[in-house]
Amino acid sequence: MQKGALTAKCLGLVTDSADKACIDKAKAAGLPFKIVPKVKGESREDFDRRVHDAVVSLGVEKNTVIAALGWMFIFSSWFIQTWKDRIINVHPALLPKHGGKGMYGHHVHAAVLLAQEKESGVTIHLMDEGVDTGRILLQKTCPVLPGDTPDTLQKRVQELEKEWYPKVLQMVETGEILLPSRLSP
Predict the structure, then answer these.
(1) What pLDDT score was predicted for residue 5?
(2) Its GO CC terms (predicted)?
(3) Which partner from 67, 90, 113, 129 sits 20 to 30 angstroms from 137, CA to CA?
(4) How far apart are CA 92 and CA 22, in angstroms?
(5) Among the listed residues 2, 35, 39, 5, the one whose alpha carbon sits nearest the alpha carbon of residue 18
(6) Which DSSP state fits 145?
(7) Which of 119, 58, 54, 129 is closest to 89 using CA atoms?
(8) Is residue 73 within 8 Å of 106, Cβ to Cβ?
(9) How many Cα atoms sit within 13 Å of 24 on the Cβ side?
(10) What is the pLDDT of residue 2?
(11) Is residue 138 domain-resident?
């Protein structure tokens, strides 16, 4: 989206690694960020409680949603229930096909090609306690072309993600997409 076209306010960034390019982007945008590294042997819920604390420290508001981009961990039931109907995820395929545990990155695109699908695309959905099973907010398609590889297909799908994820956040902000009642955690 063009700079200034999104009226939703970004409160900041929470990431699990200091090595992510997203930190540089947050710094460039003047956004606060929190790094919450996974600790070896730590339970999923304990990690998620630390992630929750980091999110809250950024200044949660009544209609705060979590935009889960590039998050490679499965959230615990506690986290999902705490942020129920407020976590928006993006999946690089047309759910319910090619989703679930292990379906990320090249795995998804290879599965689409192996299934000889005619089209692929992006699904933007609410996260629930399943993996890639939450309510679908929007899907956009692109063709699967003869000679496609996981890399070439991934590039087209990522273009859809870049275009439509901010638009979905804007649609949530304006009420064009209605989320179930959201209460502050």
Answers:
(1) 65
(2) cytosol
(3) 113
(4) 19
(5) 35
(6) P
(7) 129
(8) no
(9) 3
(10) 47
(11) yes
